[in-house]
Amino acid sequence: xxxxxxxxxxxxxxxxxDAFNQLVTRWERPIYALAYRTLGREEDARDVxxxxxxxxxxxxxxxxxxxxxxxxLYRITLNLxxxxxxxxxxxxxxxxxxxVDPVDLADERVAPQESVxxxxxxREMSEAVAKAMAExxxxxxxxxxxxxxxxLTFQEIADMLDCPLSTVKTRLYQGLSVLRRRLExxxxxxxxLRRATWESS
Amino acid sequence: MxxxxxxxxxxxxxxxxxxxxxxxxxxxxxxxxxxxEISALRDVRQDLLAWRVPLHEPIWRPLPVxxxxxxxxxxxxxxxxxxxxSVMFLSxxxxxxxxxxxxxRAGADxxxxxxxxAHAVTAAELTQTxxxxxxxxxxxxxGIDQRVSMVSTPSAARVVNASFPTALAAEVRxxxxxxxxxxxxxxxxxxxxxxxxxxxxxxxRDDVLAELRGSGSSGGGLNK
Lengths: 201, 224
Hints:
The complex is a heterodimer.
Chain A (H helix, E strand, L loop, with lengths): L4 H9 L3 H23 L2 H18 L9 H20 L13 H7 L7 H19 L3 H11 L5 H8 L3 H36 L1
Chain B lengths: L5 H7 L5 H13 L1 H17 L29 H31 L14 H35 L7 H51 L9
Helix pairs in contact in B: 2-3, 4-6, 5-6
């Protein structure tokens, strides 16, 4: 039987350790994804995830359930990421792998029929999005991440970021508009590069 | 509507009420600029899906789940078991002495109507007392077990939280208190048991002496 987050939180608060383990199993991936996309480095993201769950465990008795458990976890994670960035005095990084390893690519294949060319294109697109996102102002980046990758509602984002609903919509619109221009520019540059390569050959 | 494009966001994410959606749809019918804007926003959302997060091993090591509590008798300290065994031995000794005092008289008085003493202790009473003592110990231990379980469950979970000495110290203090309480309770039970047995022995002796005095017999009884 699958228990809801609320049930597991109640059990974990009463000292049932396995209930907390189940909550972690359920939420580790999304929390890691949020930390990774915010910080841009795997080791940092791992540290933040570890610390976020530790804080959640210690603060479980203080969690009154006004917000969803997941929203509470996201908030803890974002605060930790913010502290991390401030402490390290740096902007989010984008890890760009050197070269393309065909074995790694094969592991990333989402569909068996996906060709190597499609895989490479998808990987390049992933890097381009990561770079474009890293250049956005923090509040726009956070709003887009919470909406696009975690499916939060406008209201949930507003509550989490302590800002009005209209502000969330504005940040989303402005962030998406900037991303669109940057990605279009990149596509245009790639197209001209391909044309130049084709003409020279 | 072209001047407040943030309103399009609700439409793009399908997070607007029916009236607002109707309003936007009506506007899009006549505004090619906003139609292009909607299309571009949807395209960039599609591009965002390409951003992959690398696969990773589980980060959080599951907290150890407390094992099921051992049966109550396994949690009794050795000294308490030894004390309980002594108590049982003494009660057996008292029972044996009683039997040795009674049995010969039972033989000698054969054929004479038995005049049972008013407060004679029977084997059933002894068994009853024994059962009562065991129940008393079991109940006390069960109560202690529950408290131990309440304190020790979160403690097991905090094995990984070694970096938080304050929590750990509080936890150790809690366990220490429970352990002390458990010892104190056991001592109480054993003291109470000894008192019960002393009282029972005294009653037995009085009964036997009363019977001996009543019959004037010198058959093997307990000396005062």
